[in-house]
Amino acid sequence: MDIKTASALRRLRLVSAPEAVSFLLLLVCSVLKRTTEFNAVPVMGAIHGLLFVLYVLFWADAWNRTKWSLGTAAFYFVMSVLPTGGFFADKRLKREAEDAVIATRARKEGVVGA
Is the distance from CB of 1 to CB of 104 less than 8 angstroms? Predict the structure, then answer.
């Protein structure tokens, strides 16, 4: 894995968990708006919107660089529209990045089957 691909995956990982947290907070704010006088939906909506746009941009960049299959790319996109999906995306991206590092090291050392 080259450095640009690793960077694209890292950026996607960095935004996936905050995007999931902002989605959950937006849902809480929506409930509070309808049950109390507290209305933080405009603020949380803007924050979540920004994080969602960043997630989609970073997802598209990662898909382009990693050459994911359509199924893998669709999985990561669907994770962006589920309230806790960003946490699952982060976990899977971490595992994918670790596997890539192991494979790269094995190739450099000339290990057969890598």
Answer: yes
